[in-house]
Amino acid sequence: MILSDLRDYLKAKKTVTLNELVIHFEMDGDALRGMLVKWIKKGKVRQLAVGSDCGTTCTKCDPTLTEFYEWKEEQVKDIKTNA
To answer: The whole model's pTM is what?
Structure first.
């Protein structure tokens, strides 16, 4: 898999868990994190904060199930012309 495959999947899904990426690309989570970091550094992806919605502090959740990533849409710049 190459970075463009990851980009295309993220663009299509908008928001995904690391687990979804692991299943879809049949890759190790750490390898995918490394690829995600490249997109994060380019400003195209952001990791979303995980809320504490379950109401417990048992920490038995698999981190790949609660690690969310989001593709950031291209920002359209408002160009004003002086015509």
So the answer is: 0.73
